[in-house]
Every structure is written in structure tokens, then in C-alpha cells.
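User: Predict the complex with phosphoenolpyruvate.
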Amino acid sequence: MIRGPVFAANWKMNHTSRDAKTFMRTFLVQYARRPDRTVIFFPPALTLASVADALKGRQDILLGVQNIHWEAKGAFTGEQSAEMAKEAGATFVLIGHSERRHVFGERDEETQKKCAAALRAGITPLLCVGEKLEERERGETDAVVLRQLRAGTAALDPAAIGSMIIAYEPVWAIGTGKTAQPEDASAVHSVIRRELAVLAGDRTKETPILYGGSANAGNAAALISAENVDGLLVGGASLEPEVWASIART
Ligand code: PEP
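Assistant: Here is the predicted structure with phosphoenolpyruvate placed in the model:
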């Protein structure tokens, strides 16, 4: 159940199970239960069980995986299915993260198959979209974001689209220390919000649209105050428990 602004921690390939336990000992003291927001952790798949264990009794904090394959099972060495992720305690999955797209060559049509697989398994897709620096400089931001949004949601039932989370993550801002200005993020979020309405009508009014890209404790408040920015997807600044707790309390 998603309530209020969403604060999502993408740990990428950081934190072993042992690190995660140490992290949670500090984080859980510093982040008291808050009914007005949603906190989600995306640890590495092999660390998920230890995070789930550390979060026992804290049903206010949710879990996701960073990737799935679109098939339920089969000869796909190194992959995990949505069903496996769900069984391990994930209720969300990141799809189309810029590192999947630009480091691992994930294509638009694969993001669609992954969104469909997640929804089939009862997991909420968090679809990431965002332009590269050269695309921004050519004035193509809206076109890229709309292409990725339409492709990721193609052929999905409107009700399913309405249940998703979208993250706008400009590639040039991820892990670079360069953050989009709140008004620039807000402008792209408005484009996404309008397109969601075209794709799936009124049921997308409440669809959370998160911003991601070098968000930190210093800029989180300004970013989530911007119109149509419904939360943050945070990489680097989610790795330290004190810093992440202060962002999640924003
Ligand atoms: C991310 O990985 O989704 C991300 C936004 O990373 P960072 O906060 O480090 O830019």
C-alpha cells in the first residue's frame, strides 16, 4: 500500500547481507514509523532476505528487487523471475533503470515484457525513464521520456498502468552529483502525468512519479516540494543509514 511521498533506496550492487544488518540497526533507530509516507528498499537480490529479516515487525517499510526476467522460469542463467522475487518478499521491481538500459543494453520492448511479468506475478513495477545528456542538449527530453513511457506500458491494461510507479531519472544526473533543478524535474513530471492520463485516464491521477538523480539530504526537500514530484529514487545517498534516514524523514 503506497501512502504519501515515496522514498525509494536503490542500493545497486552495494551492501552484503552483513552490511545490510549493520545498516538496519542504525536506520531503524533513526527512522520511526511514519504513516504519511512510503519507504522502499531495493537491495541486491542476494541481500534481500537479510533485509527482510531485519525489517520483521516494520511492515511500514517495503521491499523490491532491482531487476527481473520476463519469463516465469526456464533456461535463463543468472536471471530471476518476478515470481521468485515475490516469494523472497519483494512487492516492487525496478524496470528500465538507466544502468540496465545503458550498461546492460536493455531495450524498450524488454521493459514492457518485464512490466507485464511483474504485474502478472502481483508485483508493482517501478518504471524508470530519462534522457541522456546529448538528448537533453538536442531538446529531445520529452520525446525520449514519452517513448520510454509508452513502450514500457504498451498493451498493458489501463488499470495495471494506474497501479504502477514511474521514476524520472535523467541519465546525466545519476551518480554524477548533478541534480536536475526542481522546476526542470517538475516540467518533465508534468509531461509524464499528462501522458499517463492519455494512456490510462483518471486512475493515474494518484500514480506516484518519483525523481531520481543525485538526490541527497540537502536537496530532497526542494525536490519533493516541486509540483508533480511525488517522491525520490535515491542511489548513492541511500547507502549510509543516517543520511538515508534523514532523506526519508524529509
Ligand atoms: C539511481 O540509481 O536510481 C540513482 C538515482 O542514483 P544516484 O542517487 O546515486 O544518482
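Residues 6-248 form a domain with the TIM Barrel fold (CATH 3.20.20.70).
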